[in-house]
Structures are given as C-alpha cells and as structure tokens.
What we know:
By secondary structure, this protein is α+β, with helices and mostly antiparallel strands. A hairpin with a 2-residue loop joins β2 and β3 (73-78). The protein is built from five helices and three strands; from the N terminus they run ααβααββα. It has a three-stranded antiparallel β-sheet with strand order 1-3-2. It has helices at residues 6-16, 20-29, 36-42, 49-61, 81-113; strands at 34-35, 65-70, 73-78. It is globular, with a radius of gyration of 19 Å.
Amino acid sequence: MTTIPLYQAKAALFRTLGHPVRIRILELLQEGPRAVHELRADMGIEIEASNLSQQLAVLRRAGLVISSRHGSAVLYTLATPDVADLLKSARLILRSMIAGQDELLAALQSTVDA
C-alpha cells in the first residue's frame, strides 16, 4: 500500500471542499441526517437532483458523509463531528479576514480624507 504525504492528503481534502454545493450540503447536514429531497429543498439554490446526488457521491467517497437506508429513503449524515468543526473554523478564519479588510478600508478612507 502506497502512503501519500500528509500535505497531499490535506490538498485532496481541500479540493473536495472546493465546491460551493458541497459546502452547502455539509452545512445542512450539521443540522442532522437528511434525504436527497430534503437537501434539495433546503439548498437555497436551484439544483437538479442528479447534480446533488453527484456531489453527495463525491463527499461520500472522500469520507466526509455517510449514507444509510431507512425504508425506501437514503439518509445522509456527516461522517464525523470533525467536519462541523472544520466548517466552524472556516467561518472564524473568514470573519478574521473580513475584519482585517474592514480595518484596511478604514485606514484607506482616513488617508483619502486627510
């Protein structure tokens, strides 16, 4: 078995996360297990069921979500709470970045006014 370096594994993870539909799916799954039709209704964007299923398959192959059959429905859930933690960390990083941009904008505006 060939082992890839950790930095390459991280890069593959971030490539998987690099699609807005996948991020939205993960955000919705933080609230609990959902079927495809529930996810589609709550996405906030128009998406074909086939495209949504493809994105779920990518997340499942990456090990970020798991699926289970309940009667005729397939429910998707986060594979681990760590996925929700990662999304929370991303929000905190973005908040810091935006705050830094606000400070830069204020500095630029005060320079123009002077």
